[in-house]
Amino acid sequence: MDIRLQVRAKEILERRLRQAGVANGALVVMEAGTGDVLAMVSAPSTSPPAVRAAAPTPDELLDRARYGQYPPGSTFKLVTAMAALRGDPWLTHRTYQCRPLGDGRCGNTIAGWNRAIKDDIGDRAHGTLDLERAITVSCNAYFAQLGVRDVGSKALAEMAGQLGLSTGDAAALRQALPFAAYGQGPVLVTPFKMARVAATIAAGGRMPQGRWIAGDGNPRQDGPLNVLTEPQAAFLAGAMRRVVTEGTARRAMAGSAAETAGKTGTAQLDRGLPHAWFAGFAPFDGVPERRLAFAVLVENGGYGGSIAAPIAREVMEAAKGLGLL
Fold first, then answer.
1. Number of helices (H) and strands (E), helices first, in the chain?
2. In the chain, what is the straight-line distance between the N-terminal and C-terminal CA atoms, in Å?
3. What is the value of pTM for the model shown?
4. Four-residue CA torsion sign, 161, 163, 166, 167
5. Exposed, middle or buried: residue 169 (CB in 10 Å: 0-12, 13-18, 19+)?
6. Which residues have C-beta within 8 Å of that of residue 290, sequence separation ≥ 6?
7. Which H, E and C letters describe 130-175, residue by residue?
8. Which region, left, alpha or beta, applies to residue 297 given φ > 0 means left and ψ of -120 to 50 means alpha?
């Protein structure tokens, strides 16, 4: 842990949550090459016993960063893309259609599933798009079709499992595959593990185990796991940079000095506002192993580009100011 970044990250997250009127969130920052965690914050947090008026609540005791299980929304499109590329590197060129559905929404339909795949309210039809563009604009319809027609539930579950992510029961995943392919359905992740997905891409396709204890007492000693080839990781890194420069995070990141790459996520729930996500790394042009990877989650925060991405921006700018980038 870097205590300087930890203190700044805690202040940034808690302040942003107060401003948004929400209580719960988490963030993780790790070195992409080693997986060493530099900052890990869960909110709300407990107070020291000397200043605490009452016993801590269950909400305060839950370490959301490591143990909170959440639907990942569109950040999981990175995992679907990883599964697709590992199965067939040519799928960087695969195109699918996103079209008007006639009800004011856009998306597409997939034979065998009764529910149409819809993009966010207010989105315009994306037309014909390839994998890089689909990541940039976060097209649900594209990833639903990619997941069903090119990836399949078995390969998606295997990739998620290699990354330490849960896709639930195999039968449930098959039934919900179009929706799971863009991070809904039975898929659940923790902020720590989503930061590790970003670290895998940032580090050239090698997934670090991730560790928060230094020295001989640390049981997490395994080396990085080869998940993607370097060209595949570089392709996804470039698409994540386009998310920031021209896609769903462009407003939040405009003018940032941290040169961030990332992926927004808006995880729809049965009730209440969606969970907001932003996962990525910085700097984009840096040495892969020395990049910092991160994930930010805001429970019931709304759109990832509106609240999670600004938190990530501020944390990465703080890291840059501390000389960590």
1. 13, 11
2. 15
3. 0.95
4. negative
5. exposed
6. 31, 32, 33
7. CHHHHHHHCCHHHHHHHHHHHHHHHHHHHHHHHCCCECCCHHHHHH
8. beta
What is the rounded distance in angstroms from the CA atom of residue 290 to the CA atom of residue 296?
20
How many CB atoms are closer than 10 A to CB 138? 27
Distance CA 25, CA 22 (A): 8
* Integer CA distances (angstroms), 113 to 110, 179, 231, in order: 6, 10, 34
Q: What is the mean pLDDT of residues 38-59?
A: 81
Average pLDDT value for residue range 184-213: 95
3-state secondary structure of 105: coil
Phi, psi of 206 (to 5 degrees): -105, 120
Determine the Cα–Cα distance for residues 261 and 242; give it in Å rounded to an integer.
Answer: 7
The confidence band for 122, taking pLDDT boundaries of 50, 70 and 90, is confident
Whole-Å CA distances, 14 to 10, 256, 267? 6, 21, 21
* Residue type (1 letter), 92: T
The C-alpha angle with vertex 75 and arms to 102 and 29, in degrees rounded to 5, equals: 155
Question: Could you tell me what percent of the chain has a pLDDT over 90?
Answer: 83
CA atoms within 13 A on the CB side of 188: 10
- Can you give the length of the chain in residues? 325
Can you tell me the distance from the alpha carbon of 10 to that of 314, in angstroms, rounded to the nearest whole number? 11
